[in-house]
Amino acid sequence: MMISRNSLTLPAIALLVSALSLFAAACGRSSAESKNKQNAAVAATPEVVQISTATAITRELPRYTEATGSLAAAEQTDVAPTVAGRVVAVGVDLGSYVQRGAVLARLDDADARLRLTQLQAQAQQALSGVRQAEARIGLRPGQAFDPVRVPEVGASRVALDLAEKQLRRFERLIESGDVSRSAYDQQKAQRDQLQQQYEAALQAARQNYAAIATARAAAGAAEAQVAQARKAVSDVVVYAPISGYVADRPADLGEYVSPTSKVATIVRTNPLRLRIDIPEQLIGSVQTGQSVSVITSSYADRAFAGRVARISPNVTAASRTLTVEAEVENGEGLLKPGQFATVRISQPAGDPAVLIPARAVRREQDTSRVYVIRDGRAEERIVQLGQTEGELIEVKSGIREGELVATDNVEQLKDGAAVRP
Asked: In what order do the strands lie in the sheet containing 392-397?
């Protein structure tokens, strides 16, 4: 039996393909196993973190007491008119700076001027009454009262003196018999009558002077009313009692205002006041005149200087704190009343402290971590932090002077991680 070439070739080809497939599968398994081994070797190699380092140093650190509070104006006043009236002019607006004595508003003065004219006429009439009363007793303006200078009193006095002398002569003559008793009695009666007339003249002069005093009092009261009316005329102009900025200006043109109406609010913003509460245990460290440093969120990179100006004599029983008031310089007007601020009261002496760069600290919730570098590896430390000093921060515990700490890529580090400077 004869076999063709084609019948022999197909089985051979199938066998060859099968052999090649088995070989390829074997090679694939070998390659995968080799790759897995390589990946395992790479995974087993620890990752090295690139870092920068800094050395913990010890420095004399200025100490301060820190507290928070709100800034307030050194002076603030609500300005109201002293008389009622309609606003005819307003000289300021919100945010305006005014000097003491500047015109804030002006009221209608027509009624005030009319009343002043009436009172001036009444005062002139009262003064004329005084002059007439003085003239009746011969008293010149500015002259002191002496009843003897009154003409009627003077005439009565002269007549009385003459009668008194005549009576003395009659007394001598009656003893010698040159004058009769009836003539003497007649002279004595005349002297007594003149005595009564003199006393009546004195009484009349005193009464007339009392009338002058009453007229003068009336004239004085009229002048006082005139002065009050003049003041009412001047009071229609409302002036700034202090220098400062206009924080509020509720009065508008045409509005009727009274002494209970606020025309404007003026605040003096330099210096500003800052009231804070100091814990009882720190009372001994705060004294009047100590320098303070104030920081606000609006100027976080800038500190404003001030000083402790006033200290309360009492400790608040409920909170056991001492109220302290500081004055903060605000010559540039950057700070505003009402701003929340943090104040640091400098202490007279500092203490040595361990400092590291603030960027070396990794904060997670309430925990602060620092990584100390030893023999190419990171050692995790839980630290207690203190106050900041520029870009440095105080470490109260957990780090010693001279130790090397990581300052970059601290978020990638963990205890025992390999590092490379």
From this structure: 57-61, 351-357, 392-397, 384-389
Buried b (16+ CB within 10 A) or exposed e, 321-352: bbbbbbbbebeeeebbbebebbbbbbeeeeee
**Three-state DSSP class for residue 205:** helix
Fold of 50-61+351-420: 2.40.420
Alpha carbon distance 243, 205 (integer Å): 59
335 vs 273: CA distance, rounded Å: 11
Query: CATH top-level class for 76-107+236-257?
Result: mainly beta
Alpha carbons 153 and 204: distance in angstroms, whole number? 9
pTM above 0.90, yes or no: no
pLDDT tens for each residue of 59-71: 888 777 888 999 9
- 50-61+351-420 against 65-69+269-346: fold identical: no
pLDDT of 90-104, one tens digit each?
989 998 999 999 999
Helix (H, G, I), strand (E, B) or coil at 219: helix
Q: Compute the Cα dihedral for 194, 199, 200, 201 and give only its sign.
A: positive
First to last CA, the chain: 86
Superfamily of domain 65-69+269-346: Efflux pump adaptor protein, beta barrel domain (2.40.30.170)
CA-nearest of 225, 234, 236 to 120 is 225
335-346 pLDDT per residue, tens: 999 999 999 887
